[in-house]
């Protein structure tokens, strides 16, 4: 019987404590390694007692770090809206890029990354929505792979999009080079789109939500849930209401929107206020940051326009979030 070393115990203990008690049973049931032992576990115990019992079981089974990473991936894949995700886009595809399959990708990615850094631990898993999930624990010539701070990357084969969580600047070029070579692309660039909800930035970048596009002849949208109103007020405001709704949906989309939480505009423009001669006379650009935040920013902006809170036409800077599929912008005079 194998026993776990102290570092393995620590990694396992931290993972179990990270998973909420109400999710533990569902998460553990999807882990084939523990399938035969599930009936012996009492999920009605307190989290502390349950954790101790679980750790004892893993100790008896001689659970390895490799097994623990399997459990972590199950939990992260089922609960992806954690941490900060960043969107990237592959470009300059080679002719055979659309033919790359999962087996080829796995073999090529691992081979290229290990060639760049032999002290890494890589695990790749295909999810039910066809997304390829990659977990990387980075090490160096002097350290073992750090499983406490892994990098996660999500890639949909036959698309140019990659979403990354937990990537340091030091390891960024290594991951990018391995991804570019494994997917048969020429380069990879920042999409300037980030957020704590992977599903939101994925849907926005890959346009997986209902959109509308501007038209020179606005037409009334059919109201999904009509609300009784005063006939006189309705007649007086009908045209304005329809136009505002049309503009709002064209700018931000129709139906359910990706739950983006933030948009940042970095200003690097000439100061143009005549009342402040000192700032206006400066040759260097005026720098500042404007940030919009909400639990669902796109929904908030759409509501502000459709309800008349925000003026129309909408500033081109706001619809740029959906049109350019970004939430970080640098605004210059050019």
UniProtKB/TrEMBL annotation:
It is found in: Chromosome, Centromere; Nucleus. Pfam families: CENP-N. Its main location: nucleus. Coiled coil: none annotated. InterPro entries: CENP-NAC/CAD_complex, Chl4/mis15/CENP-N. Keywords: Centromere, Chromosome, Nucleus. GO terms for cellular component: chromosome, centromeric region; nucleus. PANTHER family: CENTROMERE PROTEIN N. Belongs to the CENP-N/CHL4 family. This is Centromere protein N. The lineage of its organism: Eukaryota, Metazoa, Chordata, Craniata, Vertebrata.
